[in-house]
Amino acid sequence: MDLVSPQSNPNNFPSPILGLNLVANSTETPISTTASTTRSRYENQKRRDWNTFCQYLRNHRPPLSVSKCSGAHVLKFLRYLDQFGKIKVHNQTCPFFGLPNPPAPCSCPLRQAWGSLDALIGRLRDAYEEHGGKPEGSPFGARAARIFLREVRDFQAKARGVSYEKKRKRPMQKVEPPPPLTADAPAAS
């Protein structure tokens, strides 16, 4: 695998995301040079997330390379991120478990929201592929990561009293036009 190893960057500078220099990779003249060098918000977030994950692997004992990373390491990373969460998730022993709007504060921990974790995994999966990883070998697409995300979603839904079940779409009601007026029928006055 031709992955960028986290150990290959001794100065702690962000590793470049390959393929973003549109001027160098294209034979066409760009319309604006600033448009070709600015990254979208998604690309910036993806780069920050990738650098954070690589930093986590460097600090892991023993340090790991991305190519040696597995789904279990991804789960440890997601659990590590819980300490920086901003959403209150009630424990099952909490009296406010299952209430969408608790009436008083409690000592339950703050955690990462399921939607944030799901988006993070998507960005890391994209970054993994950009750095030379094969999609079928991605630790971010591992079965364990999918099961973990599903369990987090279900638990947070129960703890906060929020339903994540898909809502059925109601069939569109047909609006029938009124019958046309004929010459035989008298007009209502």
Number of strands: 2
The residue-averaged pLDDT reads 76
**Tally of helical runs:** 5
Count structural domains.
Answer: 1
Oligomeric description of these chains: single chain
Q: What spatial order of strands do you see in the largest sheet?
A: 1-2
The 3D shape can be described as extended
Relative strand content: under 5%
Taking pLDDT < 50 over at least 5 consecutive residues as the criterion, the unreliable ranges are 4-35
Helix content: 25-40%
Q: Strand pairing plus helix content: what structural class? A: mainly alpha
**What string gives the helices and strands in order?**
HHHEEHH
Short description:
This is Protein LIGHT-DEPENDENT SHORT HYPOCOTYLS 3. It is found in: Nucleus. The protein has helices at residues 33-37, 41-59, 71-81, 114-130, 143-160; strands at 87-88, 110-111.
Describe the structure.
InterPro entries: ALOG, ALOG_dom. It comes from Hibiscus syriacus. It is found in: Nucleus. Belongs to the plant homeotic and developmental regulators ALOG protein family. This protein has 189 residues and is mostly helical. It has one domain. Helices cover 37% and strands 2% of the residues. The chain has a two-stranded antiparallel sheet. Helix 3 runs parallel beside helix 5 and helix 4 packs antiparallel against helix 5. The longest helix is centred in the N-terminal third of the chain and has 19 residues. The chain is extended. About 17% of the residues have low confidence.
